[in-house]
Amino acid sequence: MMEAVYQAFQDEYEAQKERGFNMAVIDGMSGFVFANRFGGVHNPGTINRAIRRIYEAHNAEEIVEAKKQKRQPIIIPHFSCHHMRHTFCTRFCENETNVKVIQAIMGHKDITTTMDIYADVTQDKKTEVINSLEKKVAIF
Fold it and tell me: What would the DSSP string read from start to end of 14-28?
């Protein structure tokens, strides 16, 4: 687990010691880390609406600022909480070669889920890999 993620979990734990722990049970599972204001688990739709409010507010401000500065606005495109997971897995695949480690951390039962759905290859990564290979292999 990355240190920043661990710290976020520690901070949430400390906050829940004061306000109470999430006691929800869903399909026999319990011990959920995050709780909504009613003590239940977060609904992905609610999180996605919060994300949308944030980027829409940013975009509205950016359009005004860009117009003042006579430049093109830098707009944040639509994204959801699942896009963040997808991006994390893609970046992880770009930096880790052991696909079994990636599969385990992502929590996928089947390696094909990890590799077929999440392991996007970016143009920058393809260029980087070819440049690296070019330095190692001489082609006459």
Answer: HHHHHH------BTT
Same domain? 45 vs 60: yes
Q: Which of 76, 82, 89 is nearest to 120 (CA)?
A: 89
Count structural domains, the chain: 2
- For residue range 66-107, what is the model confidence (pLDDT) as tens digits? 999 999 999 999 999 999 988 888 888 888 878 899 899 999
Residues contacting 44, CB < 8 A, separation 6+: 80, 81, 82
Give residue 99's domain range. 80-140
Instruction: Give residue-wise pLDDT tens across range 105-133.
Output: 999 999 888 888 766 666 777 788 788 88
For the entire predicted model, the pTM comes to 0.67
